[in-house]
Amino acid sequence: MSNSPKPLADTDTQRWWTKGTTSASLLGIVIFAASFTSDRFIANSLLSLPLMISTLISVLITSWGIPKLRALKMGQVIREDGPQTHQRKSGTPTMGGLLVVPVGLIIGSFVSVNGESSEQLLALSCITLAYMVIGGFDDWRSLTRGTNTGLTPRGKLLLQTAAGLIFLTWAGWQHWIDSSIALPLGMSIQMGFMIWPLALFVFLAESNATNLTDGLDGLASGCGALVFTGLALQLMLRGNDGNPVLAGFCMAMAGAWLGFLMHNRNPAQVFMGDTGSLAMGAALSGVAILSNSLWPLLIMGGVFLAESLSVIIQVWVFKATKGPDGVGRRVFRMAPLHHHFELGGTPEQIVVPAFWLATAGLIVLALTLKAL
Protein backbone atom coordinates (compact mmCIF):
# COMPACT_ATOMS: atom_id res chain seq x y z
CA MET A 1 0.00 0.00 0.00
CA SER A 2 1.38 3.43 -0.93
CA ASN A 3 2.29 5.88 1.82
CA SER A 4 1.87 8.87 -0.49
CA PRO A 5 -0.54 11.55 0.73
CA LYS A 6 -4.07 11.03 -0.51
CA PRO A 7 -5.46 13.59 -2.96
CA LEU A 8 -7.72 16.21 -1.49
CA ALA A 9 -11.42 15.97 -2.22
CA ASP A 10 -12.53 18.55 -4.74
CA THR A 11 -14.67 20.70 -2.46
CA ASP A 12 -14.85 24.46 -2.20
CA THR A 13 -13.88 24.40 1.48
CA GLN A 14 -10.81 22.28 0.93
CA ARG A 15 -9.74 24.25 -2.14
CA TRP A 16 -10.01 27.48 -0.11
CA TRP A 17 -8.17 26.11 2.93
CA THR A 18 -5.37 24.50 1.00
CA LYS A 19 -4.45 27.49 -1.13
CA GLY A 20 -1.04 28.57 0.08
CA THR A 21 -1.73 32.21 -0.72
CA THR A 22 -4.93 32.22 1.33
CA SER A 23 -3.49 30.62 4.45
CA ALA A 24 -0.34 32.78 4.29
CA SER A 25 -2.47 35.92 3.91
CA LEU A 26 -4.59 34.94 6.91
CA LEU A 27 -1.43 34.43 8.94
CA GLY A 28 -0.22 37.88 7.91
CA ILE A 29 -3.54 39.44 8.97
CA VAL A 30 -3.26 37.81 12.41
CA ILE A 31 0.29 39.08 12.94
CA PHE A 32 -0.53 42.61 11.78
CA ALA A 33 -3.68 42.65 13.94
CA ALA A 34 -1.61 41.64 16.96
CA SER A 35 0.95 44.39 16.35
CA PHE A 36 -1.70 47.09 15.81
CA THR A 37 -3.52 45.98 18.97
CA SER A 38 -0.31 46.19 20.98
CA ASP A 39 0.42 49.68 19.66
CA ARG A 40 -3.12 50.77 20.48
CA PHE A 41 -3.35 49.53 24.05
CA ILE A 42 0.21 49.14 25.42
CA ALA A 43 2.29 52.16 26.38
CA ASN A 44 5.52 52.71 24.41
CA SER A 45 4.60 49.93 21.97
CA LEU A 46 5.80 50.57 18.43
CA LEU A 47 5.60 47.18 16.75
CA SER A 48 3.64 47.93 13.58
CA LEU A 49 6.14 50.21 11.87
CA PRO A 50 9.15 47.81 11.84
CA LEU A 51 6.77 44.98 10.91
CA MET A 52 5.30 46.85 7.94
CA ILE A 53 8.62 48.14 6.60
CA SER A 54 10.38 44.80 6.98
CA THR A 55 7.53 42.85 5.39
CA LEU A 56 7.34 45.12 2.36
CA ILE A 57 11.10 45.16 1.76
CA SER A 58 11.31 41.38 2.29
CA VAL A 59 8.60 40.74 -0.31
CA LEU A 60 10.37 42.97 -2.84
CA ILE A 61 13.88 41.67 -2.12
CA THR A 62 12.76 38.05 -2.35
CA SER A 63 10.90 38.72 -5.60
CA TRP A 64 14.07 40.30 -7.01
CA GLY A 65 16.38 37.62 -5.63
CA ILE A 66 14.61 34.43 -6.74
CA PRO A 67 15.66 34.80 -10.41
CA LYS A 68 19.21 35.58 -9.23
CA LEU A 69 19.34 32.38 -7.15
CA ARG A 70 17.94 30.42 -10.07
CA ALA A 71 20.54 31.91 -12.43
CA LEU A 72 23.28 30.87 -9.99
CA LYS A 73 21.85 27.31 -10.10
CA MET A 74 21.06 27.30 -6.39
CA GLY A 75 18.55 24.49 -6.84
CA GLN A 76 17.58 22.46 -3.77
CA VAL A 77 18.74 18.84 -3.68
CA ILE A 78 15.95 16.68 -2.24
CA ARG A 79 16.86 13.73 0.01
CA GLU A 80 16.06 10.44 -1.67
CA ASP A 81 14.74 8.76 1.49
CA GLY A 82 12.18 11.52 2.10
CA PRO A 83 8.54 11.53 0.99
CA GLN A 84 8.37 10.83 -2.73
CA THR A 85 5.98 13.74 -3.26
CA HIS A 86 8.89 16.07 -2.43
CA GLN A 87 10.91 15.01 -5.46
CA ARG A 88 8.99 17.46 -7.60
CA LYS A 89 10.50 20.27 -5.49
CA SER A 90 14.00 19.41 -6.67
CA GLY A 91 15.66 22.41 -8.29
CA THR A 92 13.64 25.03 -6.39
CA PRO A 93 16.02 27.89 -5.50
CA THR A 94 17.38 27.65 -1.96
CA MET A 95 19.54 29.79 0.36
CA GLY A 96 16.72 32.33 0.46
CA GLY A 97 17.84 33.29 3.95
CA LEU A 98 20.57 35.36 2.30
CA LEU A 99 17.83 37.64 0.95
CA VAL A 100 15.71 38.27 4.03
CA VAL A 101 17.82 37.80 7.17
CA PRO A 102 19.80 41.03 6.48
CA VAL A 103 16.49 42.85 5.93
CA GLY A 104 15.24 41.95 9.40
CA LEU A 105 18.57 42.83 11.00
CA ILE A 106 18.89 46.22 9.28
CA ILE A 107 15.31 47.29 10.00
CA GLY A 108 15.57 45.92 13.53
CA SER A 109 18.69 48.01 14.18
CA PHE A 110 16.77 51.25 13.63
CA VAL A 111 14.68 50.76 16.80
CA SER A 112 17.63 51.51 19.11
CA VAL A 113 17.17 54.41 21.53
CA ASN A 114 20.38 54.38 23.56
CA GLY A 115 23.96 53.14 23.59
CA GLU A 116 23.38 49.86 25.46
CA SER A 117 20.43 48.99 23.22
CA SER A 118 22.55 49.66 20.16
CA GLU A 119 25.28 47.33 21.39
CA GLN A 120 22.78 44.57 22.22
CA LEU A 121 21.29 44.85 18.74
CA LEU A 122 24.80 44.71 17.28
CA ALA A 123 25.50 41.53 19.25
CA LEU A 124 22.20 40.01 18.10
CA SER A 125 22.96 40.91 14.51
CA CYS A 126 26.43 39.37 14.73
CA ILE A 127 25.26 36.04 16.16
CA THR A 128 22.43 35.86 13.63
CA LEU A 129 24.80 36.59 10.74
CA ALA A 130 27.32 34.07 12.09
CA TYR A 131 24.73 31.31 12.05
CA MET A 132 23.57 32.46 8.62
CA VAL A 133 27.14 32.06 7.34
CA ILE A 134 27.41 28.59 8.91
CA GLY A 135 24.13 27.59 7.28
CA GLY A 136 25.22 29.13 3.99
CA PHE A 137 28.44 27.15 4.00
CA ASP A 138 26.44 24.00 4.70
CA ASP A 139 24.02 24.77 1.85
CA TRP A 140 26.85 25.59 -0.53
CA ARG A 141 28.61 22.31 0.13
CA SER A 142 25.35 20.46 -0.49
CA LEU A 143 24.84 22.26 -3.80
CA THR A 144 28.40 21.75 -5.04
CA ARG A 145 28.34 18.08 -4.09
CA GLY A 146 24.88 17.51 -5.56
CA THR A 147 23.72 15.80 -2.36
CA ASN A 148 21.50 16.68 0.60
CA THR A 149 24.46 16.63 2.99
CA GLY A 150 26.85 19.54 3.48
CA LEU A 151 28.88 19.98 6.62
CA THR A 152 29.32 16.98 8.89
CA PRO A 153 27.07 17.12 11.99
CA ARG A 154 30.17 17.44 14.19
CA GLY A 155 31.65 20.21 12.06
CA LYS A 156 28.41 22.18 12.06
CA LEU A 157 28.01 21.75 15.82
CA LEU A 158 31.56 22.97 16.47
CA LEU A 159 31.00 26.11 14.39
CA GLN A 160 27.68 26.80 16.12
CA THR A 161 29.32 26.30 19.52
CA ALA A 162 32.18 28.67 18.70
CA ALA A 163 29.80 31.42 17.54
CA GLY A 164 27.59 30.92 20.60
CA LEU A 165 30.56 31.14 22.97
CA ILE A 166 31.72 34.40 21.40
CA PHE A 167 28.24 35.91 21.81
CA LEU A 168 27.95 34.72 25.42
CA THR A 169 31.42 36.07 26.26
CA TRP A 170 30.39 39.45 24.85
CA ALA A 171 27.08 39.40 26.74
CA GLY A 172 28.74 38.28 29.96
CA TRP A 173 31.35 41.02 29.74
CA GLN A 174 28.55 43.59 29.43
CA HIS A 175 26.44 41.99 32.22
CA TRP A 176 23.44 41.57 29.94
CA ILE A 177 22.40 38.11 31.11
CA ASP A 178 20.38 37.48 34.26
CA SER A 179 21.49 34.41 36.22
CA SER A 180 17.89 33.62 37.16
CA ILE A 181 15.21 32.31 34.81
CA ALA A 182 11.77 33.89 35.00
CA LEU A 183 8.99 31.29 35.18
CA PRO A 184 5.20 31.58 34.84
CA LEU A 185 3.07 32.84 37.74
CA GLY A 186 5.80 35.18 38.95
CA MET A 187 8.20 32.41 39.94
CA SER A 188 11.88 32.18 39.06
CA ILE A 189 14.77 29.77 39.42
CA GLN A 190 18.31 30.84 40.28
CA MET A 191 20.82 29.22 37.92
CA GLY A 192 24.09 30.83 38.99
CA PHE A 193 27.00 29.71 36.83
CA MET A 194 24.82 27.09 35.11
CA ILE A 195 23.11 29.85 33.11
CA TRP A 196 26.11 29.82 30.74
CA PRO A 197 26.02 26.17 29.62
CA LEU A 198 22.22 26.43 29.49
CA ALA A 199 22.42 29.50 27.24
CA LEU A 200 24.85 27.72 24.91
CA PHE A 201 22.56 24.70 24.82
CA VAL A 202 19.66 26.97 23.85
CA PHE A 203 21.60 28.28 20.86
CA LEU A 204 22.44 24.77 19.68
CA ALA A 205 19.02 23.27 20.38
CA GLU A 206 16.91 26.12 19.00
CA SER A 207 18.89 26.63 15.79
CA ASN A 208 18.83 22.92 14.99
CA ALA A 209 15.14 22.70 15.89
CA THR A 210 14.24 25.49 13.45
CA ASN A 211 16.45 23.76 10.90
CA LEU A 212 14.52 20.48 11.31
CA THR A 213 11.21 22.34 11.03
CA ASP A 214 12.14 23.70 7.62
CA GLY A 215 10.84 20.69 5.70
CA LEU A 216 7.51 21.81 4.23
CA ASP A 217 6.56 24.86 2.18
CA GLY A 218 6.07 27.80 4.55
CA LEU A 219 6.30 25.76 7.75
CA ALA A 220 9.42 27.27 9.35
CA SER A 221 8.90 30.78 7.95
CA GLY A 222 5.29 30.92 9.21
CA CYS A 223 6.09 29.47 12.64
CA GLY A 224 9.14 31.74 12.91
CA ALA A 225 7.11 34.87 12.12
CA LEU A 226 4.58 33.87 14.79
CA VAL A 227 7.16 33.13 17.50
CA PHE A 228 9.02 36.41 16.88
CA THR A 229 5.66 38.19 17.20
CA GLY A 230 4.86 36.30 20.39
CA LEU A 231 8.20 37.23 21.95
CA ALA A 232 7.64 40.88 21.03
CA LEU A 233 4.18 40.89 22.62
CA GLN A 234 5.37 39.33 25.87
CA LEU A 235 8.22 41.85 26.07
CA MET A 236 5.68 44.69 25.80
CA LEU A 237 3.29 43.10 28.29
CA ARG A 238 6.00 43.19 30.98
CA GLY A 239 5.52 46.92 31.44
CA ASN A 240 8.56 48.56 33.03
CA ASP A 241 10.40 45.23 32.98
CA GLY A 242 9.90 44.90 29.24
CA ASN A 243 12.21 45.85 26.41
CA PRO A 244 10.64 47.87 23.56
CA VAL A 245 13.93 47.81 21.62
CA LEU A 246 14.17 44.02 21.53
CA ALA A 247 10.43 43.88 20.84
CA GLY A 248 10.91 46.09 17.80
CA PHE A 249 13.81 43.91 16.67
CA CYS A 250 11.54 40.85 16.95
CA MET A 251 8.86 42.49 14.82
CA ALA A 252 11.41 43.41 12.15
CA MET A 253 12.47 39.75 12.04
CA ALA A 254 8.82 38.66 12.00
CA GLY A 255 8.25 40.96 9.02
CA ALA A 256 11.27 39.55 7.20
CA TRP A 257 9.92 36.00 7.50
CA LEU A 258 6.36 37.07 6.75
CA GLY A 259 7.50 38.73 3.53
CA PHE A 260 9.54 35.65 2.66
CA LEU A 261 6.47 33.48 3.32
CA MET A 262 4.65 35.17 0.46
CA HIS A 263 7.11 33.39 -1.86
CA ASN A 264 7.75 30.36 0.33
CA ARG A 265 4.12 29.26 0.83
CA ASN A 266 2.88 26.25 -1.10
CA PRO A 267 3.90 25.81 -3.86
CA ALA A 268 7.20 27.35 -2.77
CA GLN A 269 9.14 29.47 -5.25
CA VAL A 270 12.15 29.56 -2.91
CA PHE A 271 13.46 27.78 0.20
CA MET A 272 15.30 29.45 3.09
CA GLY A 273 17.85 26.63 3.40
CA ASP A 274 20.08 26.18 6.43
CA THR A 275 21.16 29.74 5.65
CA GLY A 276 17.82 30.98 6.91
CA SER A 277 16.76 28.34 9.42
CA LEU A 278 19.96 28.44 11.50
CA ALA A 279 19.87 32.26 11.51
CA MET A 280 16.25 32.19 12.64
CA GLY A 281 17.06 29.93 15.57
CA ALA A 282 20.06 32.03 16.57
CA ALA A 283 18.05 35.26 16.56
CA LEU A 284 15.26 33.71 18.64
CA SER A 285 17.81 32.33 21.12
CA GLY A 286 19.69 35.61 21.38
CA VAL A 287 16.54 37.60 22.11
CA ALA A 288 15.35 35.06 24.70
CA ILE A 289 18.73 35.00 26.48
CA LEU A 290 19.16 38.78 26.61
CA SER A 291 15.58 39.43 27.75
CA ASN A 292 15.19 36.52 30.21
CA SER A 293 12.53 34.99 27.96
CA LEU A 294 13.73 31.39 27.86
CA TRP A 295 10.51 30.04 29.32
CA PRO A 296 8.25 31.95 26.87
CA LEU A 297 10.44 30.77 23.98
CA LEU A 298 10.13 27.16 25.15
CA ILE A 299 6.32 27.39 25.17
CA MET A 300 5.87 29.51 22.04
CA GLY A 301 8.37 27.41 20.11
CA GLY A 302 6.61 24.19 21.06
CA VAL A 303 6.35 23.13 17.42
CA PHE A 304 10.11 23.53 17.01
CA LEU A 305 10.59 21.48 20.18
CA ALA A 306 8.22 18.74 19.00
CA GLU A 307 10.00 18.50 15.64
CA SER A 308 13.37 18.13 17.36
CA LEU A 309 12.12 15.63 19.94
CA SER A 310 10.53 13.49 17.23
CA VAL A 311 13.94 13.03 15.61
CA ILE A 312 15.64 12.27 18.94
CA ILE A 313 12.96 9.72 19.91
CA GLN A 314 12.98 8.11 16.47
CA VAL A 315 16.74 7.62 16.47
CA TRP A 316 16.94 6.47 20.09
CA VAL A 317 14.13 3.89 19.80
CA PHE A 318 15.50 2.58 16.49
CA LYS A 319 18.97 2.07 17.97
CA ALA A 320 17.64 0.62 21.24
CA THR A 321 15.46 -1.97 19.48
CA LYS A 322 17.79 -2.81 16.60
CA GLY A 323 18.08 -6.56 16.13
CA PRO A 324 20.70 -8.77 14.46
CA ASP A 325 19.26 -7.83 11.09
CA GLY A 326 20.08 -4.18 11.74
CA VAL A 327 16.41 -3.17 11.78
CA GLY A 328 14.76 -1.50 14.76
CA ARG A 329 11.33 -0.17 15.62
CA ARG A 330 10.11 3.28 14.63
CA VAL A 331 7.78 5.42 16.69
CA PHE A 332 6.92 7.67 13.76
CA ARG A 333 6.37 6.85 10.10
CA MET A 334 9.19 9.30 9.42
CA ALA A 335 10.88 12.07 11.39
CA PRO A 336 10.75 15.05 11.78
CA LEU A 337 7.14 15.09 12.93
CA HIS A 338 5.68 16.86 9.88
CA HIS A 339 6.71 13.91 7.69
CA HIS A 340 4.84 11.54 10.03
CA PHE A 341 1.58 13.31 9.21
CA GLU A 342 2.43 13.53 5.52
CA LEU A 343 2.99 9.79 5.24
CA GLY A 344 -0.24 9.24 7.16
CA GLY A 345 -2.12 10.78 4.27
CA THR A 346 -2.40 14.44 5.33
CA PRO A 347 -1.18 16.78 2.57
CA GLU A 348 1.36 19.42 3.48
CA GLN A 349 -1.20 22.09 2.55
CA ILE A 350 -3.09 20.96 5.66
CA VAL A 351 -0.12 20.07 7.89
CA VAL A 352 1.48 23.51 7.59
CA PRO A 353 -1.54 25.65 8.60
CA ALA A 354 -2.26 23.15 11.39
CA PHE A 355 1.24 23.65 12.78
CA TRP A 356 0.77 27.41 12.47
CA LEU A 357 -2.43 27.13 14.48
CA ALA A 358 -0.66 25.05 17.10
CA THR A 359 2.05 27.71 17.36
CA ALA A 360 -0.54 30.47 17.68
CA GLY A 361 -2.27 28.53 20.45
CA LEU A 362 1.01 28.07 22.32
CA ILE A 363 1.71 31.80 22.03
CA VAL A 364 -1.70 32.57 23.53
CA LEU A 365 -0.92 30.12 26.34
CA ALA A 366 2.44 31.75 27.05
CA LEU A 367 0.95 35.25 27.03
CA THR A 368 -1.86 34.12 29.34
CA LEU A 369 0.65 32.69 31.81
CA LYS A 370 2.60 35.92 31.61
CA ALA A 371 -0.53 37.95 32.45
CA LEU A 372 -1.42 35.83 35.50
Describe this structure in words.
The chain has 14 helices and 2 strands. It starts with 11 loop residues before the first helix and ends with a helix. It is globular and about 60 Å long. Strands 1-2 form a two-stranded antiparallel sheet. Helix 2 packs antiparallel against helix 9, helix 8 runs antiparallel to helix 9 and helix 8 packs parallel to helix 14. The longest helix is centred in the middle third of the chain and has 31 residues. With 372 residues, it is mainly alpha-helical. A hairpin with a 5-residue loop joins strand 1 and strand 2.
Ordered list of secondary-structure elements with their pairings:
Elements: H1 12-17, H2 20-41, H3 48-71, H4 97-109, H5 115-145, H6 153-173, E1 180-182, E2 188-190, H7 195-213, H8 219-237, H9 244-264, H10 273-290, H11 294-300, H12 302-320, H13 337-343, H14 348-371
Antiparallel strand pairs: 1-2
Helix pairs in contact: 2-8, 2-9, 3-4, 3-9, 4-5, 4-9, 4-10, 5-6, 5-10, 6-7, 7-10, 7-12, 8-9, 8-10, 8-14, 10-11
Supply Rg.
20 Å
Q: Using the alpha-carbon principal axes, give the shape.
A: globular
How far apart are the first and last residues' alpha carbons, in Å? 50 Å
- Strand percentage, roughly? under 5%
Segments where pLDDT lies below 50 for 5+ residues? Answer: 1-14
